[in-house]
Amino acid sequence: MPDSPSDFIRDMVRADVAAGKHGGKVVTRFPPEPNGHLHIGHAKAICVDFGVAKEFGGRCHLRMDDTNPTTEDVSYVEAIKRDVKWLGFDWGEHLYYASDYFQRFYDLAEKLVERGRAYVCDLPDEEFGRSYRGTITEAGKDSPYRTRTPAENLELFRGMRDGKFKDGEKVLRAKIDMSSPNMKMRDPPLVRIKHAHHYRTGDSWCIYPLYDYAHCLEDSFEGVTHSLCTMEFESARELYDWVISATEVPHVPQQTEFARLNLTYTVMSKRRLLQLVEQKRVSDWDDPRMPTIAGFRRRGYTPESIRDFIGRVGVAKNLSTVDVALLESCVRDDLDRRSPRVMCILKPLELVIESFPENEVEELEAPHWPAGTEPGADIAENLRGSRKLPFSRTLLIDRDDFAEDPPAGWKRLAPGREVRLRHGYFVTCTRVEHEGGQVSRVICTHDPATRGGIASDGAKNVGTIHWLSAAHAKDVEVRVYDRLFTTENPGSDESTDWLLELNPASLTVVRAKGEPCLAQAEPSARFQFERVGFFTADPDGKPGAPVFNRTVALKDAWARQTAKAAPTKAAPLVSQPATTEDKKPAAPLSPEANALVTAHGVTAGEARVLVQDAVLGALFAAAVAAPEGEALAKQIASVLVNDLLGEMRAKKIDALPFDGKALVELVQLGQAGTISTKQSKDVLAEMIASGKPARAIVEAKGMKQIASADALGPIVDQVLLANADVVARYRGGNVNVFGAIVGLVMKQTKGQGNPKVIADLVKEKLA
RNA sequence: UCCGGCGUCGUCUAAUGGCAGGACAGAGGAUUUUGAUUCCUCUUACGAAGGUUCGAAUCCUUCCGUCGGAACCA
Questions:
Q1: Complex ipTM above 0.85?
Q2: What is the pTM of this model?
Q3: Is A300 within 8 Å of A519 (Cβ atoms)?
Q4: Mean pLDDT across A127-146
Q5: Catalytic annotation on A155?
Q6: I need a labelling partner for A195 at 20 to 30 A (CA). Which of A152, A481, A562, A660 fits?
């Protein structure tokens, strides 16, 4: 079993399950809007949603988030279902539609109205935005309709439902806070009027809920425990929680955000993908150059390779653009194991073997699979073993495998040079014929002793090229796909048209020649064209007239080497702009903070926090006022700011169960040497959790500090002996492991050793 | 500019105060009837400055950068 992935989401879910949250159950959902095709970015969400559910024994729902009738269609529903299935995920019985909940959304909205948590607003959209919402820096003001009574609102809301108003004439708003720093909380619309036909509910509704109102309720209705979405919904989370709480629905789901996937050399936004299709820059949504699931499928990608890719990308919150080379590496890796090898000539050049009889045809045995590779169950019968290759006097080779004037390092054919024809014979070029200024025919002799490609004299360092018998080769159409864009981040420069960054050579159609077995290839059959790349049969092909898409090229060390030898661009001579980090000076300390610095000798940074944070400030004041507090003011401030603040943030708490006197006691224990600074942090955490006094905690846990070198010495010796490898690394010059050695001793003493004494001992013993 | 998020090799991602690890990309080499595959070796990173600590990528402060948020879209 591959090692199961670990990331911040899985860590959170694991902790929730362990804590018995939701009875230890895990329910996730993948909620696309059926208004477009799924792309590789969705594949990440699908893998995360379904993957997390599966790993924790839960389930994942497929939910069509179809709350906007004007954009959605059943054809998208079908495409989405097919794509999710193809990726290898199964929602079982759990296919849901937001549109099935319209009545429930409505009923809960009536309840909000009755409770005075929502109101009907008559302000037109633009006017609300212009005159009431405010800006990011200024608070908004209340809508004049905000004070309508629940009864009045109820009647109007029912009127909305009954079609008494036109689109945009009225809207149901949440009554929250027009001065919230989070714009999402400034009385957001919950339900709008739309006289439009819905692809599922027809004309039964003329009001439709908005995302922020509907989505959290959908999650709640379905018992979703972990609602995983992308980062742009982060500021919507506050509203998500508001709706759940205001509607008083019994099940409370939790939203968590992660970064969406971006890929180099491609665009991912629905808007841009649509533009590519509509402007016929690509053939359709499933054009093999599109980053859609359908595009990757047609290109010949396997679902396994895409899942592997998503796994390797990982899940985090960083904005990221993954190198498409990683995806290509994943698909090569997968295809290498599952593709039969065949020969196909993309740029045919005639090769005549003078020494071979005119009308003779020989059959040579050639395995479809490299040694050690077994064909999978899905491989056609005729491709499972080996095939007979016809060999005759007139062959075809690839133009790229012949050079009249070969560069240094050339291992292919050239005048006077010998190469191996794969599975065939060694041939030597004797002369060349030209036509119209270019090579038209290569004349060779063959070595009959090398039949099957086996070197007669054990010669190893001979290049190998692929070939076909001219008379037996079949016509095949090959579509060579390359990256759709020439730039790593198309559209990142707003000042230019992103369409200008399209790669004009993203598709090259080649009339190629292939082995006989290719003529009958079933659509979606996959091959490796040896020395060229991985290809898949396209549905456009017909029996006898096959079409192949290049999924991905083989790695090509020779091409890389030659590209490097001939630099394409002159190095830019622009000098690096000086990195003058013009620094804004830190804001000056407030008078209150200054007073703390002069009165108690705390640092400026600490004073700043104590002034700014009311809870900590009050605690500090109480502590220094307590008996013996003033003498310890500096230490108290340090504990408060450097330890307590971080602890409170991590645990998301804003009130403390102990007072200033308790804090003084903790600091005193540290000053007296009863406990170490490390232990002091543990005690502090315990004080936050239980509110017990420091001394009681210390006694209950039997904490003490071992500071005597006599007691610590033997332990240090033992650790040094047991970790000879670490010690060796320290002696080798890695000073960083010093801390690790101290840590190991600390662990031995169960945290009771005095780290300073230990550090001195270690230093002394390793000197 | 307000609120929020995020800053680790070229790229993506680990580390839960104690040896900055992995993958891809790149470089070099071995094997090879695919200049492929496979195998080995190597280069390269904690945004900056302060503070707390025996010890900081990790805790605190300030600054810098970057992304998201002011749709009757999702």
A1: yes
A2: 0.94
A3: no
A4: 96
A5: no
A6: A152
